[in-house]
């Protein structure tokens, strides 16, 4: 398994004999749970987006369709990030956040407590 990280953030551990099988991240996601976005860093410093950041809450220097990105995160391995250099544009793949669909703490003062879909039933 040369070239594949098997420990640490973003590690990929394959069962014996599966080294030649293509690995697809979030393969269980439907087309409705995927979006392609163009991200441009309009700032003068590099900006990184982590694997589970709610994309509309990303650094204000990043120009992207925040409405289309609502409820989505980057489609990258857990624990990794994507770096955007100043002035650079990149097309990125994103997938819908799952679970309770809450992202508290990123936007202070929001009355919905971070709910991505305020009409969704509460899950425990």
From TrEMBL:
The secretion signal range is none
GO-annotated cellular components = urease complex
| InterPro entries, alphabetized | Urease_beta-like, Urease_betasu_sf, Urease_subunit
For molecular function, the Gene Ontology terms on record are: urease activity
Instruction: Mention any Pfam family matching this sequence.
Output: Urease_beta
Q: Where is this region: Disordered?
A: 98-124
A single GO BP term for this record reads: urea catabolic process
Q: Which reaction does it catalyse?
A: urea + 2 H2O + H(+) = hydrogencarbonate + 2 NH4(+)
**Swiss-Prot/TrEMBL keywords:** Hydrolase
Q: What is this protein called?
A: Urease subunit alpha/urease subunit beta
């Amino acid at each position: 398994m040369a070239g594949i990280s098997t420990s640490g953030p973003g590690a990929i551990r394959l069962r014996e004999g599966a080294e030649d099988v293509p690995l697809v991240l979030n393969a269980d996601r439907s087309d409705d749970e995927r979006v392609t976005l163009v991200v441009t860093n309009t700032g003068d410093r590099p900006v990184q987006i982590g694997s589970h950041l709610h994309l509309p809450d990303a650094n204000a220097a990043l120009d992207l369709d925040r409405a289309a990105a609502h409820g989505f995160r980057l489609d990258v391995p857990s624990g990794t990030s994507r770096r955007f250099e100043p002035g650079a544009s990149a097309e990125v793949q994103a997938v819908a956040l799952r679970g309770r669909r809450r992202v508290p703490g990123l936007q202070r003062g929001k009355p919905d407590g971070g709910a991505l879909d305020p009409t969704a039933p509460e899950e425990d």
